[in-house]
Amino acid sequence: MRLATVNDRLVLVSEDAQTCVPAQSVSLLAALRGGSYAPDGDALALDPAQCAAPLPVSHTFLDGSAYVNHVDLVRRARGAEMPERFWTDPLMYQGCAVFEAPNAPILADPAWGTDFEAELAVITGDVPCGASPEEGAAAIRFVTVLNDISLRALIPDELSKGFGFVQSKPPSACAPFAVSPEALPGWDGARLHGTMCIDLNGKPFGRVQTGEGMTFDFGQLVAHAAKTRALPAGTVIGSGTVSNRDAQGGPGQPVADGGLGYACIAEQRTVETLAHGGPRTPFLTEGDQVTIWFEDTEGNRPFGDISQTVKHRAGHD
Amino acid sequence: MRLATVNDRLVLVSEDAQTCVPAQSVSLLAALRGGSYAPDGDALALDPAQCAAPLPVSHTFLDGSAYVNHVDLVRRARGAEMPERFWTDPLMYQGCAVFEAPNAPILADPAWGTDFEAELAVITGDVPCGASPEEGAAAIRFVTVLNDISLRALIPDELSKGFGFVQSKPPSACAPFAVSPEALPGWDGARLHGTMCIDLNGKPFGRVQTGEGMTFDFGQLVAHAAKTRALPAGTVIGSGTVSNRDAQGGPGQPVADGGLGYACIAEQRTVETLAHGGPRTPFLTEGDQVTIWFEDTEGNRPFGDISQTVKHRAGHD
């Protein structure tokens, strides 16, 4: 099953993604809360440019950082050591549960050091407090892709206060489609195998393997989130930036240098700093175009494309 | 205007809180998004025990820590220094936007060190990105009271990871009523003056002045939250635990010793530790009863009572 939200209405997406049919439940949240996914109306042409996020507003977004290689690299970039326990105890923060459309502009202030982060996310049904990783995995209803916009220049100062991200993580954008696990050929029950593809200004920036380097699977992330609370249906759990080590255990290479590249600019800057003594790739500036899609093990793009253009944030005066 | 949610339905509460009338909009979120607060039906008897939180589920809960005295005290309790900048740069974390009913049980594991935190919260209309504190204050539509349940034994470990609270801050409970600022005699445009009252097992625990010691007002907290994102209507912004210094600038005294007491157990334990070398008040255990209400400058309880009993969390096996 593949779903989208068009004109504030939940729709079922056809196999070729050319048409859609309204679902009986008006929203994905209502459907997840016991509503119906049954088709209810005539088929319509589907224009991905008209898609909102499949779940435009939820109540809970808990974003993990399951690809620990990413944590290691971005910490190195800001001169912070990564504690050994991060390999056994998942990092997770409460994020903004408002999700932007796949083609929403990225409004950025040049002083913020705006970056993308391509990640997978799952949307759960009801999860009881204290659920096990197996119960967590079984509660996953849909998978999608997020661009977790990160304001790198604001992060060190905000994290040093110890309360996590607020200003430095504005709303994420979401791919147009949410897909149920059984419709995803690379789903192994708790991880999704395939390639997270990122193009920056039309050039390949990342071709990162989502099934590799995911230290904590989605079942473990859901269980971590549910340790002291029940998670209501519609909870979104993010994987954190997809990130791979290379065959030698190192941080890999940019695509331009023959590597798999990265799912955020910060990692590439760290690698450039390690290699050349300083970063060479700037953070996002006005006019930059970011395209993110997931390619499955059969070469398809089940979630459609996130395609965003960076706009200078107008002053508010 | 005073609102509640009864049987999944937004209702207007009468002046004496004995009756209510359904509102045209089904939910507070719908009303805030441009719906109607107009009465739509017959008056019904209002039983506060039937009230859910006035806004049972939102998309965004950003909890400040505006009473900096609280931060100073709980940090001292865990041997952590408070940076000087906390007096000028608001602390804020992204919290769980699911709100429990005023009489929901507090499900606690004895190992978690469960505590209450009585705080004020505001519910906003739409706030543009980059709003000023004045614009932030003007966007406040309703005020209410929260009990921000805090699992003290989990906090140091979780905060040391640097990503803020997830497991250590399960959903907050909310008072039965949300009240518009113009109906609150102690509202000064950005702060609410009155007394936050907390009884533990029927004995006064706190009688803390909400208009004093609030280093950052609600306008400043809303502006902080809106620095890099628009806040959609229905955003909840918390004040953090209400906390007063005494006349000498010290941490005050428990009610039993003639002071104003505290709005959480952690502060009282810190003061006990400073005075006696160790804490004397245990965290919450099964059967404990916590009652929280706000008394306004005219001696009324505009938000009604939060009244919760602690239950041992059953194992999930």
From TrEMBL, chains A, B:
<dbReference type="Pfam" id="PF01557">
    <property type="entry name" value="FAA_hydrolase"/>
</dbReference>
<feature type="domain" description="Fumarylacetoacetase-like C-terminal">
    <location>
        <begin position="61"/>
        <end position="310"/>
    </location>
</feature>
<dbReference type="InterPro" id="IPR036663">
    <property type="entry name" value="Fumarylacetoacetase_C_sf"/>
</dbReference>
<dbReference type="InterPro" id="IPR011234">
    <property type="entry name" value="Fumarylacetoacetase-like_C"/>
</dbReference>
<protein>
    <submittedName>
        <fullName>2-keto-4-pentenoate hydratase</fullName>
    </submittedName>
</protein>
